[in-house]
Amino acid sequence: MSLRVKIIPCRTDNFSYMCIDSESNAFVVDPSEFVPVDEFIKTNNLNLKYILNTHHHFDHVGGNIELKEKYGAKIVGNKNDKDRIPGIDICLTEGEFFEFNEYRAEIIDIPGHTIGHIAFYIQSENIVFTGDTLFSLGCGRIFEGTPEMMYQSLNKLKNLPENTRVYCGHEYTLNNALFLESVIKDRDLSEKIESLKELYEKKQPSIPTTIKAEKKLNFFLKSNEENFKNHLKMNEANDLEVFTYLRHLKDTF
Ligand code: ZN
Ligand code: FE
Question: Is residue 103 part of a domain?
């Protein structure tokens, strides 16, 4: 029986994810706030066992304490962020696993947006939770790390199997696509923009995406491609310089 992942929209554009096993035991990834997550738990009669955080920002940990108090759930996060993640109980580091019944989520260090940012990768389910590092058609802003850190973190995620479903922290996809289009016109991208507009009209999320889809259209994963460098007239630049330039353009978009 596979793990079910349910999207809980929070705040204006955050996603929290409820992962549910066949017996209604559950863990939530990045509970942005208490109320919508609590409502979801009550409506679906779940036993919330764990709270997983990708990083310490308030829009990812906002529901931690109230959910922990109400449900007795244990909070899982990066050991290196133990002083910044509210209520943390279980501290893990790169290469370790969070275990939930028969499911194992590998901790992958992906610093850049914040220094302590991690991803949770469940290989058996082909699922990765990427927080504010890899977005659909974009990547997170670099607040605490360096462009090089972010570039390497994205490369780690890019190397996951192509059929991996990507659950990221925000619904930024359309804005990201419009930014990419401002950099290079591309027919596939234009089609994607049209389908995203339709989704948004129906108020449906664009998540999950897949590693395969991101490798195809997300320019932030293409800075090593000669074709892409050609388009930007940056043939002489190295991959990191191309990535850094792109990230800089996005910061002021
Ligand atoms: Zn963040
Ligand atoms: Fe965020």
Answer: yes
d(CA 85, CA 88): 6
HSE-CB for 244 with a 13 A CA cutoff: 10
CATH number at 36 reads 3.60.15.10
Structural domain includes residue 59: yes
Measured in Å, residue 230 CA sits from the centre of ligand 1 at: 32
How many whole angstroms from 194 Cα to the centroid of ligand 1? 27
Q: Tell me the residue range of the domain where 105 lies.
A: 4-173+208-216
In our burial notation (b when 16+ CB lie closer than 10 A, e otherwise), range 56-82 reads bbebbbbbbebbbeebebbbbbbbbbe
Kindly report, residue by residue over 191-250, the tens digit of the pLDDT. 999 999 999 999 999 999 999 999 999 999 999 999 999 999 999 999 999 999 999 999
User: What one-letter code names the amino acid at 216?
Assistant: K
With respect to residue 201, please indicate whether it lies within any of the assigned structural domains.
Answer: no
- Is residue 34 situated within a structural domain? yes
Nearest of 101, 103, 105, 102 to residue 92 by alpha carbon: 105
Question: What confidence tens digit (pLDDT) does each residue in 156-175 have?
Answer: 999 999 999 999 999 999 99
